[in-house]
Design goal:
The protein is mainly alpha-helical. The chain has a domain at 27-94 and 135-187. It is 43% helix and 7% strand. It has helices at residues 2-12, 31-49, 77-84, 112-122, 141-156, 158-168, 174-183, 199-202, and strands at 55-58, 69-72, 94-96, 106-108. The strands form two sheets. It has a two-stranded antiparallel ribbon. A two-stranded antiparallel ribbon has the order 3-4. Helix 2 packs antiparallel against helix 7 (174-183). InterPro entries: DUF3456.
């Protein structure tokens, strides 16, 4: 009985969503947070594809006699296209960490809240959140909205990303070039530099 009342209190204060249709407690990402995560995921994807030292041939000749131009894959348009492909899909790997209040609430991995709840279920405790257990780990409304914002930013700033990739990637971080200096000019961009605090950094522990 106590645990059920405790859960109701958490729901009331917005720590857990009672269901996908319920809007109370839902806090969508703002433009700063969306741009930050797009830049983070694209940079991560470029790091993955940048490990290749392949040299590729580009160009086309009808008679296939004229030699094709050889270029490093690491500097090629092909690498950029492959890195951009499905980059916003990676956001579906994120979860909402409602024990955090800043932009770091969007992060991969299970939140402390749901780790605790899953642990209780594993111990045989009946936990009623108003949604089936199999839906607990499905992307929330905030995450699907974040993915949509990512796709919109990608479409709007495609040329900016291309310019950074071909001309500036060795000198300016993508997050600074895309977000701080362009997408968020004249807007609050402090979220770009928020980092997840380890428990020992603040002297406080995350609580359910």
């Amino acid at each position: 009985m106590f645990f059920r009342v405790f859960l109701v209190s958490l729901l009331f204060f917005g720590h857990i969503l009672a269901g996908p249709e319920e809007k109370e407690g839902v806090k969508y990402a703002d433009k700063c947070e969306a741009c930050k995560i797009l830049a983070t995921e694209l940079q991560a994807r470029l790091t993955e594809t940048g490990k290749s030292h392949d040299v590729i041939e580009i160009g086309y000749s009808v008679d296939d006699v004229k030699p094709k131009k050889r270029t490093s894959y690491k500097r090629s348009e092909l690498r950029l296209l492959e890195s951009l492909e499905n980059v916003c899909e990676r956001i579906l790997e994120y979860n909402i960490h409602k024990e955090r209040e800043d932009s770091t609430r969007f992060a991969k991995g299970m939140s402390q809240t749901f780790k605790t709840l899953h642990g209780l279920v594993d111990k045989g405790v009946k936990v009623d959140l108003g949604i089936p257990l199999e839906l607990w780990d499905k992307p929330s409304a905030e995450i699907t909205n974040l993915k949509s914002q990512c796709e919109s930013l990608l479409e709007e700033y495609e040329g900016t990303i291309e310019s950074w990739y071909f001309k500036h990637q060795d000198n300016v971080p993508l997050m600074q070039y895309l977000c701080e200096e362009r997408a968020l000019v004249g807007q609050n961009h402090k979220c770009l530099y928020e980092v997840t605090q380890e428990k020992g950094d603040t002297g406080q522990k995350d609580e359910l």
